[in-house]
Amino acid sequence: MAITKEEVRSVNPSSVAKVDTKLEIVVIPVSDVDRAKEFYGRLGWRLDADYDNGSDFRVIQFTPPGSGCSVIFGRNVTAAPPGSAQGLYLIVSDIAAARKELLSRGVDISEVFHDAGGVYAGPDQPYLFGRLRVSGPDPDHRSYRTFASFNDPDGNGWLFQEITTRLPGRIDSAATSFASANDLASALRRAGAAHGEHEKRTGGKYDENWPDWYASYMVAEQAGKELPQ
Question: pTM of the full predicted structure?
Answer without folding.
Answer: 0.70
